[in-house]
Amino acid sequence: MSKVPSLSYLEVLRALQRDGWVIVRQKGSHIRLQKHLPTEVLKITVPAHRPIKRSTLSHLLKQARLSVEQFNALC
After folding, report:
1. pTM for the complete prediction?
2. Which domains does the chain have, with CATH numbers?
3. Within 10 Å of residue 43's Cβ, how many Cβ atoms?
């Protein structure tokens, strides 16, 4: 398993949008995204930080149900 990269929120948003996530709203420095699956709707909140901490990005990837390798392929 490779290490979680340290990226800015813009790079993270672009990668998640390539995976089918849609920006729903933004309040302050938090951006809300949704992804519609056949049986459920997933929701995550991305902080607008430069860079996003590795631990925070790791938790976001778990919520998005993406591995680090899948995420790196989207970047």
Report:
1. 0.89
2. 9-74 (3.30.920.30)
3. 13
